[in-house]
Amino acid sequence: MKAEFDIGYVLNCLPHRYPFLLVDRILEIIPNEKAVALKNVTMNEPFFTGHFPELPVMPGVLIIEALAQVGGVLVVSGLPAENRGAPMYFMGIDKAKFRKPVIPGDQLVMEVSILKHRRKIVKLAGFAKVDGEVVAEAELMATIGEKK
Length: 148
Prior knowledge:
2 helices, Thiol Ester Dehydrase, Chain A
């Protein structure tokens, strides 16, 4: 299934909201396989006021969080309807690498793939690109919590 999903779709999949929602749009999603998403990085991001005022750079930890959010949308898209709405919790980050700074004006294109999915544990691989060049990558682990 290939399609473009707007911010409404993202908001339905994730509990995150401004200023912590770091995904603007899903460009492609293949449930239980991979998702590609977009984050438009603007000077209006609240983290730029302190990181760094003279040379704004998106914190690497927030790039990882953005990848995790894309992973959250991917995992939720593959769940049966009755299980959607369950929270996901970060469990681990491995092999994180940062290759280039991300600055205002950049479009961060993120791709996340499922490596393993057993019961409530998911292992994901993700990378972020700007202008086709990888700027960050990591393997992520998460668990699917109980739906309230």
